[in-house]
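Notes from the pairing session

We agreed to fold both candidates in a single pass and log them together. This is the raw record for the first candidate, unedited. Please don't reformat it; downstream parsing expects exactly this layout.

Candidate A
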Amino acid sequence: MGIYLHRHHANHCLVIGENTSNIGDLFLRRQLISVTRVMFAPNKIFSIEWQDNLATEAVLQSCGASPMSIRAKPFSVLAKAVGASVFIGPGQMIRGNASVFCVLFYLVIALVTRLSRGTVTLHGIGIGRMDKALHIFLWKLIGSLCGAGYFRDEPSLKQAREILGMKQNAFLCADYAFLQTDLSALFCRTVTAPTEPYIVCAPVYCQSEGRLLSSDEVATTVVASAASLKCEKIVFLLHAPGIGAEHAFFSDCEKKVRAISQSALRTRQVETFDLEIVAKLYREAALVISNRLHAVIFGLIAQKPVLVLEDGSQKLAAIARQFCTPVGSIAGSLRPRARTPEYRDALGASQALAFAAFAEGGASGSSKTRWASNALRRYRS
């Protein structure tokens, strides 16, 4: 990928991704924008999503990007795509419940870009359940226009090759949350232990993806974990501020936590797009409990004990397997585990793989290995 990208130095780049309506997608967008600016030094970076999100515009502008909405200004977006370097991702953009109109517009952008001698690359993409022929057909066309596609886990890579037909130009990379940037460093700062230990609980409740945890299960797990760790404070962190269904689910979880613990545990909800506040909550937590991918990854980056709530998601299974993270509800005690050399190696390797997607000659095994090992060496030091 590096060879393909470095041959084309566009004056401007388009970073096209999911709506930044949750913390994970906003974090990933910031990561890709930051690395794009460092690696390619474009005159202008445009952050493209389907519709405007006033709550996150200031965050994107603060890192030097110009937010644009496809829905509000479709022709302006297409004009920006002419001769550009287009980066699609990161995140789970390829899935069966995505808007057909949105995917169709991605295809039009890719066509305009390639016809004007620009470049298109998939970055840090996850692939969800693909059960609709039209979605598969559209993404196959998009894949055929891409110089390379970088997928964040092995199940996604396998689907890219088998379903999307990207046999020769699909590669494995880590989730872009692992990229070593000033933003991800916020989760790694050395902190003094808070005067009162607390647990961060950040479940996801999503009907369209069939991820419907029981509030009873979440509450039981939280109470058992708090008893084991001797915590009296629970922070319910909404990764999708403003989503009504999650608000209702979180409120139900809170009520049941207080009922099961007989009001011995104090709870509060935190709802913010301020990534510094989010990072501080994770790096000072005693434990992270979640079935949300980027809540789990934030806990891993902050080197905190993480308990993954099982909901059948393959992306959670992949990350839990890589880091030997416990999955499921706990019945007994849970103690913070000392991080082993194997864990440290896995974390460093994930950071290295993410960097390799931007390395010179990324499609070359030897060059990719060299960059990965260098990044891993810097992490270990």
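Candidate B (folded immediately after A)
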Amino acid sequence: MRNAVNPSYAAHGRACLDRGMRPHLHRTAALLTGAVLALGATACSGDGGTDGSGDAPSSDASASATSDDGAGGEDSLRDAIADLYNGPDPDATGDPAEGECFADELIDRLGEDGLVEAGIAEEGGGVVDRPAALDEPTAEAWADATLACSDFYETSAAALQAQSPKDLDEPAYADCLRDAVTEDDVRAALVASLTGALDDPAVTTLSRAQATCADGAVS
């Protein structure tokens, strides 16, 4: 008998945020809640960068780790954004080159000043690992840059397998998710999640689809 799909993804996501978890900004981790719950993984950790307790590293520590000794310039910022997007273990969740593509796309859309104003970048080229929820224009730029550089469905499968205690048939999961939700649906869910609107119907739709597809793709 398959696991029942938990209907309370939005409530769970809000609980994680209430515990001090800020939006996960690398790859697809912010939107894996439904699938993670279905497979029994730690649903609040979500980024591979915790110790399993759900406690995130401080933004100060993350920023200092990516600021390249205070060196300024677009190259430093591009490298920092790529590292943020790729996460602590880029090989486990997709092609590390996607981070470089994403950084170029995001800088083209928002510019250095826009990234600083949005609370993503710091003066001098560093980034804040866990900024506050993004405003809608910034979230739209982030989502568009993500979708320009990666196949969400395949990246979602890889990210989920990296977090799951069970074996996942990644191609089957990706194909199922591709049939269940369109790229427009994914974009809407990305934007809503990045703005902190975890009760948005788009997030619920994607979470339910991920849970269903994950449940059907475990061996």
